[in-house]
Amino acid sequence: MSKPPVKAPAAKKTAPSGKAPARAATAVAEAPAAPAGNRFTERFGPATPKTTELPKPPMESTKSATKVDPKLANAWKNKAGRDLSEPELLAMPEGEYMNDKQLDFFRARLQALKDDLLSNAGETTEHLREDTTVVPDPADRATIEEEHALELRTRDRERKLLKKISQSLVRIDSGDYGYCDETGEPIGLGRLLARPTATLSLEAQQRRELKQKMFGD
Q1: Considering the entire predicted model, what is its pTM?
Q2: Average pLDDT, the chain
Q3: In Å, what is the CA distance from 116 to each residue of 11, 119, 123, 196?
Q4: Environment class of residue 76 by beta-carbon count within 10 Å: exposed (0-12), middle (13-18) or buried (19+)?
């Protein structure tokens, strides 16, 4: 005898009818999360075209800062060389390097420095002549002798500087002032203002000091 067909249990029909609303609710709740994430990435994403344009304003400011004041650039035309100020001297065109007015400026500066050193040397001589009293206290006498020795060492350094000043004045008259002895390149106004007796450019001076440290010459 053939068995009758088995029917599906009716209890399974209740399962999808009870869970379907819950899944629909979760799908509706998760749906608006996607645009929220997109808004977050659009606002706070790392790749934004605005950040690439930020360095442009400083470039324009640096260009404007390097512009020379036209009043300073043209002041040397109506003044004598010895009457120029340092900003006016530095504002002169590069093509006017070591012209007559610049040479006149440095000649006056070197001569003033020479006169100042000579006056200091004269004051030291008079001071040593006047201070000839014998001090009975050994401690006071040692202090005075130490002061005299320090003053004499200072005047000895100034004596060497006077020799360099005289050589620089000779270089101005011969037309060699302002140019490096080793390379023949311009020393530069900035270096000459800081050290009027310079005979080497900054690069040549650094090379010479390096050789002296290496070979002790």
Answers
A1: 0.59
A2: 73
A3: 118, 5, 11, 15
A4: buried
